[in-house]
Design brief:
One of its GO terms (molecular function) is nucleotide binding. The protein has 429 residues and is α/β, with parallel strands linked by helices. It contains 16 helices and 16 strands. The mean pLDDT is 96.
């Protein structure tokens, strides 16, 4: 398979390295594309195989020329979220399939354009929901599929982002909804996809609330950072700020972003307390599914720890799953947890609760990434996937609809019916 990658920021590395290091006997990266020439050169250097002429590079404005000259079979889209739809559609029209970073896109207009293009061309898009492939999350799917707790009736799902990872969304392009759809689309697409997949259903009604409670100018003053600057690199109080991002002290950030600033003026270290940030940091949603299941969901982005907590209520009992990814942030360093920080408890009616052995794997996202990449780049070498973990345009669409409806509910103060919302836009999934 001939592969072109569009977007050479940090997220493309997973795909690039997997092809170059693990699947070069089956696939070839024939082109790289980015709006920033510096990052493009770094990516090409990393992707080039010894003894070859290297990988062809194209600036974003030359994407159509890339397609015409290199004729890729598949385009990997790893650009900022609001650009996904443009490249997906252009790839479809050129006869290419697509592998897309989550989320599929950020709003209903772009979603309809993707769906229409897919119906018109018959091309395929895979959205890379790596959380589905985590052994621990797959175990939950297997328990539910087996009927271990009977029929699932209700879910409580809480996701905690710590003050390093969570804060990062407020200093980058993600901090404006027109770029990312807000965290309820950009980040929660993972979580809503897990719920859709676990439950084997789709969301119908959403009522949500959300606000920016922590990453605000008033909090900066409360923390003694009243003299802060617009970015960490030239901030007078950076040395006393727990949220400082020192790109010059991090080789990867320095080479990928700091040294690329002169080409496009993109600053990776904007102040997380800026007044003009347009996304929420505290969000809750109540969701009703077509199956009748109801779910309560909470996302916070300034927690003292990072991970998830989820409880499934069923007619025979319940499942409680907890994963501590980071114990906390101490002196600016994140204390990552080990495999034993993942627990799953099965409690059936009339029985004592049982702690189950939780499978885990090696690699990022709890061992999920290597498994997902195997199914993407070497499906014949993998076992048949009885859990249905691959995600197409339909799954990608449903994963963002909860977040889009939640954003609409926050804005209007009313519950949003997703089928009504889709009919009003002429969208069919």
């Amino acid at each position: 398979m001939k592969i072109a990658i569009v977007g050479c920021g940090s997220r493309h590395k997973m795909f690039r390295d997997s092809v170059v290091e693990d699947y070069s006997d089956k696939h070839e990266i024939v082109a790289l594309c980015d709006s920033n020439g510096h990052r493009l050169r770094l990516a090409a250097e990393a992707a080039s195989q010894p003894g070859t002429n290297g990988v062809a590079t194209y600036l974003a404005g030359d994407f159509d020329r890339l397609i015409a000259e290199q004729k890729p079979d598949t385009v990997v889209v790893a650009t900022p979220d609001f650009l996904h739809s443009d490249y997906i559609i252009r790839a479809f029209e050129a006869g290419c399939d697509v592998i897309c970073e989550k989320p599929l896109t950020i709003d209903l207009t772009r979603l309809k354009m993707i769906l229409d293009a897919q119906a018109r061309t018959g091309r395929k898009v895979m959205v890379t929901f790596n959380y589905r492939y985590s052994p621990a999350r797959t175990q939950i799917k297997e328990l539910i599929m087996s009927g271990a707790i009977g029929t699932v009736t209700a879910v409580d799902f809480r996701w905690h982002l710590d003050r390093v990872h969570g804060a990062d969304y407020f200093r980058r392009w993600h901090r404006q909804k027109e770029n990312s759809g807000g965290l309820l689309v950009h980040k929660s697409t993972h979580h809503f996809d897990l719920l859709n997949w676990w439950l084997g259903s789709v969301p119908v009604d959403v009522f949500a609330s959300g606000r920016r409670a922590f990453y605000r100018p008033e909090m900066a003053v409360e923390l003694g950072l009243g003299g802060r600057g617009t970015r960490c690199a030239d901030c007078a109080v950076a040395s006393s700020c727990d949220f400082e991002l020192n790109m010059d002290g991090d080789e990867n950030l320095r080479s990928l972003y700091r040294e690329a600033e002169d080409e496009d003026g993109y600053y990776r270290d904007r102040c997380v307390f800026d007044a003009d940030i347009g996304i929420e940091d505290t969000m809750q949603a109540h969701i009703r599914y077509a199956s009748g299941v109801t779910a309560n969901y909470t996302l916070t982005s300034y927690s003292p720890w990072e991970g998830l907590e989820i409880k499934f209520q069923g007619t025979k009992g319940d499942i409680t799953h907890r994963h501590v990814e980071v114990h906390g942030v101490f002196g600016g360093e994140r204390a990552h947890a080990g495999g034993d920080a993942v627990t799953t408890e099965l409690h059936l009616a009339g029985e004592h609760p049982r702690m189950l052995d939780v499978p885990h794997g090696e690699g990022h996202h709890g061992g999920a990434d290597p498994v997902m990449l195997g199914y993407i780049f070497d499906p014949e070498g993998m076992e048949p996937d009885r859990f249905g973990r691959a995600s197409d345009h339909v799954a990608g669409g449903w994963s963002i609809l909860t977040g889009i409806a939640a954003n609409m509910s926050i804005e209007t103060g009313s519950a949003v019916n997703i089928p009504t919302m889709l009919r009003a836009r002429g969208i069919k999934l």
